[in-house]
Write a structure and sequence with these properties.
There is one protein chain. This protein has helices spanning 2-54, 148-157, 163-175, 179-189, 197-211. The protein contains 5 helices and no strands. By secondary structure, the chain is mainly α.
Length: 213
């Protein structure tokens, strides 16, 4: 309890000190305000003096009239005799310019278009007919005429690694009505090298398929 009373006493003393400082500041401000009021009163007195001086009449100087200028009489003009008019020169004849003859346009000859050489299609090399002793090798489904190794070879070199395209082509070959129809289909849909061994193997498989029907 005593500590609380001491703390309150210390806080009260600090507030009293702050109040004393504020009162000193206020008294200083009052002195400054009084000094400003005195300066304002002096300025009012000076302003009244200036207004009284402005009311005094200013004597303007009288203007001295200037003498009128002396006007001298104008000299009489003597008319000079008119000079004889010279004859006007005859106008030169107007020479019309010769018409400009535009040159005829040069007609360039049309370029001669050489006809494109006719590329004759290479004949389809049909395989040799199978001998009678090889009749047991004939099949009705071309897939049976192609070995597993040849199937990978055909897919890589003839169908560009596209297994779906090869299977679709084999289905079409199986459903053709004749061997010539198969050759026509290959001629119109593929650009195979007819001299390659892979092409010859594929043709032999077709021949085995249609020779057995």
């Amino acid at each position: 309890m005593n500590e609380l009373i001491q703390a309150l006493g210390t806080y009260t003393e600090a507030l009293e000190q702050k109040i004393t400082v504020l009162e000193q500041r206020i008294s200083g401000y009052e002195e400054k305000v009084a000094a400003l009021e005195e300066q304002l009163a002096l300025l009012k007195n000076k302003l009244e003096d200036l207004e009284n001086l402005g009311k005094l009449e200013v004597l303007e100087p009288q203007e001295t009239p200037l003498p009128e200028p002396v006007v001298e009489p104008e000299p009489e003009l003597v008319a000079e005799p008119e000079a004889e008019a010279e004859p006007e020169p005859e106008p030169e004849p107007v020479v019309e310019p010769e018409p400009v003859v535009e040159p005829e346009p040069v007609v360039e000859p049309e370029p001669v278009v050489e006809p494109e050489p006719v590329v004759e299609p290479e004949p389809i090399v049909e395989p040799e007919p199978v001998k009678p002793e090889q009749q047991e090798l004939f099949v009705t489904d071309i897939r049976k005429a192609i070995s597993l190794g040849d199937r990978f070879l055909f897919q890589r070199e003839l169908f560009g690694q596209n297994g779906e395209a090869m299977q679709r082509t084999l289905d079409i070959i199986n459903h053709c009505s004749s061997e010539q129809e198969v050759f026509d289909y290959i001629e119109h849909n593929f650009e195979w090298d007819k001299k390659s061994p892979t092409y010859e193997l594929f043709i032999n498989a077709i021949h085995r398929t249609y020779s057995g029907r």
